[in-house]
Task: inverse folding
């Protein structure tokens, strides 16, 4: 007998919950904010709206379906099953956070605070969930993802972008090149390298792209093409600045060889779940074969 579908509800602890957990009580949290000229009711109201959205989504799940919940900080240890339908309730970034842990499961993004989020990935309201669950396997957009694969088989996936550089604010030192460029590589010292997708072109990647004069065309979310930028490359007798931006087609790979004691690679802002790279290691970055299947 086949199992009934399972809805995995992904959410994030609200700012109000974090504040109360830190200070112990609502009253103490309110006093702390008041000393800084803020009113806790703003956060409490947003908390109530988020919880109401979660309750409405939960009520929309068919009674014959199974249910599970996972908080953002626990995603790295949650086991998703092939038959899961993932419902993300929160901000656009929360969809990006969960994407790297999936293997083709459809994702339904639900905006818990309409008007505060761009709604690029959380496209729907709680009232639409019942209808969308019935068509979740059929009505999806397949969004391009980016991957980084190290020479020791470590692998990292991301929906928006992957950053490679030093932890903190130290200078990253490495050699950079393209796989199809005959082995040519340039020694660089910079603030790191950013490689992003068409989905990421609505966020961090776009800000870097605008600073560079927008000479490269931004990819679309479903387009098998990435853009990459070196951040603040430093020219010196030993380091160059000729390879600072470009695009990667489906088969192309950007190759980085570490020349620092330690560099990291992380995706979609989740620095706590990063690849650790040491001197002499190489990592290749390009279009990922997996896609995020986002319910349209």
Result:
């Amino acid at each position: 007998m086949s199992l009934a579908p399972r809805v995995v509800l992904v959410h994030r602890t609200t700012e109000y919950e974090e504040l109360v957990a830190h200070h112990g009580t609502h009253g103490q949290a309110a006093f702390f904010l008041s000393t800084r000229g803020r009113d806790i009711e703003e956060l409490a109201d947003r908390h109530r709206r988020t919880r109401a959205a979660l309750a409405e989504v939960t009520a929309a799940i068919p009674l014959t379906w199974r249910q599970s919940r996972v908080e953002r900080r626990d995603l790295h240890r949650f086991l998703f099953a092939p038959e899961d339908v993932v419902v993300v309730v929160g901000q656009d970034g929360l969809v990006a956070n969960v994407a790297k842990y999936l293997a083709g499961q459809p994702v339904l993004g639900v905006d818990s605070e309409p008007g505060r989020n761009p709604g690029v990935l959380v496209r729907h309201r709680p009232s639409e969930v019942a209808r969308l669950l019935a068509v979740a396997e059929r009505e999806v957009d397949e969004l391009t993802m980016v991957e980084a694969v190290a020479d020791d088989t470590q692998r990292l996936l991301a929906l928006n972008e992957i950053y490679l550089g030093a932890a903190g604010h130290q200078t990253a030192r490495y050699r950079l090149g393209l796989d199809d460029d005959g082995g040519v590589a340039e020694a660089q010292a910079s603030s790191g390298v950013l490689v992003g997708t068409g989905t990421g072109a609505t966020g961090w990647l776009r800000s870097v792209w605008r600073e560079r004069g927008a000479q490269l065309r931004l990819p679309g979310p479903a387009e098998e093409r990435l853009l990459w930028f070196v951040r603040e490359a430093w020219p010196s007798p030993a380091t160059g600045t000729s390879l600072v931006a470009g695009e990667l087609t489906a088969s192309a790979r950007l190759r980085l060889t570490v020349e620092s004691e330690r560099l990291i690679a992380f995706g979609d802002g989740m620095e706590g779940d990063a690849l650790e790279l040491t001197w002499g290691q190489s990592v290749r970055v390009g279009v990922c074969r997996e896609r995020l299947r986002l319910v349209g």
User: Anything to note?
Assistant: DSSP finds six helices and 16 strands in the chain.
